[in-house]
Amino acid sequence: MSNNYQRLSGYTFYTVLFSYASLLVLYVLTLLMYPSCGRSGNLLIAGLHLVPLLCFLPSLMRQHIRSYVWFCFMLLGYFLVAVPNALGCSTVLNILEPILVVILFTAAMMHVRWRSRALKARSAVAEHDNESEV
Length: 134
Fold this sequence. Notes:
- The protein is mainly alpha-helical.
- It has one domain.
- Helix content is 87%, strand content 0%.
- The longest helix is centred in the last third of the chain and has 42 residues, at 92-133.
């Protein structure tokens, strides 16, 4: 069973990385290169979107479970901004933003669940092996 959770957490890890990179590219496109609804590119707003995401990159790569939990909490704020933006100005990129945030949130949440179960199962197997040696 541990191997199954390990495999599932691997899938969600790569889903998180792909959707994370896609969201970063989307923010660069929508905030700097192709702003919509009569807006102009703003480096300060782009920084407010990108810097918090980039702060989580090292801990996401190391697969720290607690960092994934905090990352999910932070993504809720991104969702709260993305939905009215998509409903107010319906361009393809603006509609893609909440979709990517939901995919990223769901993948990160499931990664927490499956990674913690895989680690728990691995520690139980190691504990059982240590007891059998004695």
